[in-house]
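A reminder from the course coordinator: this example appears on the midterm review sheet, so study it carefully.

Given structure:
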């Protein structure tokens, strides 16, 4: 049995790939491919195989033996596809997103990947790693982790904390060292049909119909507001979950709809220099011009922060008023504005 081990990285269309593969298992089966449903009860509803990545850390309730047992059930399949972006950043003995700033990160990462390789040693494993432009990847990952409450702090602090994830050559070497090979792909070569192009690039039959985009990042200015307001020293942190939901709404996005795209980089020179450091020594992959070129600043002044605060309070009042029923919150915002006027 051959295992295609899709290791991420994060923010490279992994959720779209996993969604398509999960929803079209019957078509995969007809083509001699298997995308296993999650065997672990706590993760049965997920499209990804992130529970497998957790199992190898040794700190979750799932174990590497659970993974081996789950794979043995599919031993009759010629090719099995496993997809977990968490494989690219997990460490032995740590929970996800912890320990990224440790001096021994690489050693712990190699130890972790060796456990993965040993557990899958009975099968032929083909790891695949997808990279995105460094500046886009860093900003998108920061926005994701702030929204998921895995990181609280400035963008600059995040770049220092997660520095090993931006060393692409070392990331690739770590996986190659454990499995003896790694196939590297560029996210930008896949983006128009992320799942179909991904399958084609690794030599597997694709699907017709394209791949829906999932997990779009909110406006960077909303992330800046969220990071500021979710700071643990700011009173009112009990509303963290509501703020996280708010920044994903259409009404929140409309706050900056008439302004140009924003980014966290101080200028284009710093942004390009960072990307250059990410891809240093990485051969065989090319990257296009950044989508963040000439972007405005995501840092909000006091007036803009207060404007988002007001919109959030109106949205929250409307949400609590209607309970779990879905209701266009901006109606309440418009009415409240008219009343104040």
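Designed residues:
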């Amino acid at each position: 049995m051959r295992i295609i081990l899709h290791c991420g990285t994060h923010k490279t269309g992994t959720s779209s790939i996993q969604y398509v593969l999960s929803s079209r298992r019957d078509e995969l089966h007809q083509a001699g491919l298997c995308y296993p449903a999650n065997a672990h009860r706590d993760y049965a509803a997920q499209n990804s195989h992130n529970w497998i990545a957790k199992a190898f850390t040794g700190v979750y309730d799932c174990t590497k033996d659970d993974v081996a047992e789950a794979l043995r059930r599919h031993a009759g399949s010629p090719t099995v596809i496993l997809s977990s972006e968490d494989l690219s950043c997990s460490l032995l003995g740590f929970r996800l997103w912890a320990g990224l700033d440790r001096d021994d990160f690489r050693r712990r990462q190699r130890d972790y990947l060796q456990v993965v390789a040993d557990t899958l040693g009975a099968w032929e494993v083909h790891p695949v790693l997808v990279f995105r432009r460094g500046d886009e990847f860093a900003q998108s990952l920061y926005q994701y982790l702030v929204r998921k409450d895995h990181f609280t702090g400035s963008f600059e602090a995040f770049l220092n904390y997660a520095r090993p994830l931006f060393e692409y050559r070392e990331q690739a070497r770590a996986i190659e060292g454990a499995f003896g090979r790694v196939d590297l792909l560029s996210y930008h070569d896949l983006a128009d049909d992320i799942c179909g192009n991904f399958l084609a690039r690794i030599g597997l039959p694709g699907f017709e119909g394209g791949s829906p985009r999932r997990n779009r990042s909110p406006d960077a200015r909303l992330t800046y507001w969220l990071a500021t307001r979710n700071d643990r020293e700011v009173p009112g942190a009990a509303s963290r979950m509501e703020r996280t939901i708010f920044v994903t709404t259409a009404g929140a996005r409309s706050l900056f709809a008439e302004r140009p795209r924003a980014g966290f980089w101080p200028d284009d020179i710093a942004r390009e220099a960072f990307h250059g450091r990410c891809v240093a020594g990485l051969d065989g992959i090319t990257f296009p011009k950044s989508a963040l070129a000439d972007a405005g600043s995501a840092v909000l002044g006091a007036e803009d922060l207060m404007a988002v605060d007001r919109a959030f309070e109106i949205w929250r009042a409307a949400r609590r008023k209607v309970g779990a029923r879905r209701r266009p919150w901006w109606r309440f915002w418009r009415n409240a504005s008219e009343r104040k006027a």
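Residues 329-341 have pLDDT under 50 and may be disordered. The first helix runs from residue 14 to 23.
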